[in-house]
Amino acid sequence: MDLDLVVRNARIATAGDVFDADIGVRDGRIVLLGEGLPAGAREIDAAGRTVTPGGIDSHCHLDQPMPPPARMADDFESGTRSAACGGTTTVIPFAAQAKGQSLREAVDDYHRRAGNKAAIDYAFHLIVSDPAPSVAQEELPALISEGYTSFKIYMTYDDLKLDDRQVLDVLSVAREHGAMTMVHAENADCIGWLTERLLAAGKRAPRYHAASRPMLVEREATHRAIALSELVDVPILIVHVSGREAVEQIRWARGRGLPILAETCPQYLFLSAEDLGIDDDYQGARCVCSPPPRDRANQQVIWDGLRDDLFTVLSSDHAPFNYDDPAGKRPEGEEVSFDRIPNGIPGLETRMPLLYSEGVLEGRISVNRFVALTATHAARLYGLYPRKGTIAVGSDADLVIWDERAVTIENARLHHAVDYTPYEGRTLRAWPGMTLSRGEVVWDGEKFTGRAGHGRFLRCDLPSLLPGGGPVGT
Ligand code: DUC
Ligand code: ZN
Ligand code: ZN
To answer: Which of 330, 407, 434, 452 could serve as a FRET partner for 192 with CA atoms 20 to 30 Å apart?
Structure first.
């Protein structure tokens, strides 16, 4: 058999196994796995190195329309370039419906934004901010059948939030059509009330963002989301879980046999409320995201949940705003009060190396769990498996060859369009030595070698889940 590429002597890690083999690739797919494969047109020697499936970042925001003056720094070109250089080969950002807008219009607009820009493959989640009858009963079912099988709903943010009745409406559609609902769980009224009191007391600095969104606010909304999903009898995924109180709610729900899935992000492992500033310094605006990072004890709670199966996926929640930019963290060029700072931090490129280094190489999680959390589970949850998320005959040749060497994170060496990283100066024990997207080298360990337009849009099948809520088969 003619092979376009052979990755030789790989130590392959999947969600279930670790084994040594050569990987034979033709037309962008894995066609052979075994010892002593025939020569390929191109050969890559992976001797002594671990090879994992390319990452799937199933929660990231790229070129998402924002209320003015905010504007995201990354479009599909810079965002997917950055992802590729950090070992991610599929992204699933959000086609966001503005209130009053048709969902179809939001999807069409988002396709125009992705256009010929993506360097790696991509699918879309939907953000449903206005489940009017025409949206819930006509557009949403039609879009699900066309391959947009997951949507995010918000319990906070004035321009996006749904009330409980609307949440029930959306969950009913998800149940009827087998789609997956992602829930941003924070109590909007509590946040509004706390924010008003903080501002009235003159507490305006970025660090008060954390005080306006304490864990109770996340706990209450998580509990309510669980109850609403129980009422409708449908699985949900609680996104960006930040610490103990939400974790306790999810463990409680699982104990009752409810299919509640959970996602967390690197910021809840590596950042804390102190990164928002220990005094009134505005620099803390860089780390303003929601829910906010907590403290060290909560970081440990999140690590425990990654190890013991509480979490199904680790995503970046990449939400790219420049620090020194009137369209970013300094609206109109000003140091504004904490409630006016655009929420979000960049993390597409650092997600995989952070977890491989600090999780796998520091002995906190197995390499199999790493693969499950960064690729396989997302592929199953969002209907991309087994084309994506594993190393198997028939799967796309989306691969990461890991270099285990010390690398210090410097924004100047990252590939996004954001003017900072919250992880500046942190030294890791590994970085992708090579990333392949459908058999093409898109990152060679030194530079981006892919091209805008290589990425293809992926239609998602329905999620595959066990009755208990866990993805099938791992
Ligand atoms: N929180 C979100 O819900 N989305 C984007 C960024 C953030 O911090
Ligand atoms: Zn969110
Ligand atoms: Zn988000």
So the answer is: 330
Best residue among 94, 184, 289 to mutate for probing ligand 1, ranked by most atoms within 8 Å of CB: 289
Full set of structural domains in the chain with CATH: 55-369 (3.20.20.140)
Ligand 1 pocket check for 289: Cβ under 6 Å: yes
Q: Is the CB of 64 under 6 A from ligand 1?
A: no
Of 30 and 469, more confident:
30
Contacts of 287 (CB under 8 A, 6+ apart): 206, 267, 271, 275, 276, 293, 345, 422
369 lines ligand 1 (CB under 6 A): no
Quick check: CB of 72 below 6 Å from ligand 1?
A: no
Tell me how far the alpha carbon of residue 239 lies from the centroid of ligand 2, in angstroms.
7
Beta-carbon count within 10 A of 157 CB: 15
Res 332: pLDDT:
86
Closest ligand to residue 291's CA: 1
Q: Does position 465 have pLDDT exceeding 80, yes or no?
A: no
Confirm if 445 and 432 have CB atoms less than 8 A apart. Answer: yes
With contact defined as beta carbons under 8 Å apart, do 353 and 407 qualify? yes
Q: What does the alpha-carbon distance between residue 301 and residue 378 come to, in Å, rounded to a whole number? A: 22
Residue 234: what pLDDT?
96
Residue 61 Cα to ligand 1 midpoint, Å, equals 9
- The Å distance, Cα 202 to ligand 1 centre, comes to 25
Q: pLDDT per residue over 129-165, tens digit each?
A: 999 999 999 999 999 999 999 999 999 999 999 999 9
Q: Ligand 1: does its nearest atom lie under 6 Å from the Cβ of 346?
A: no
Q: String of b and e for 8-36 (b: at least 16 CB within 10 Å)?
A: bbbbbbbbeeeeebbbbbbebbbbbbeee
Flag whether pLDDT at 474 surpasses 80.
Answer: no
Task: Indicate the pTM of the whole model.
Answer: 0.97
How far is 401 from 374, CA to CA, in rounded Å?
Answer: 15
Q: How many Cα atoms sit within 13 Å of 290 on the Cβ side?
A: 26
Q: Whose CA is nearest to atom 2 of ligand 1?
A: 290
Residue 469: pLDDT over 90: no
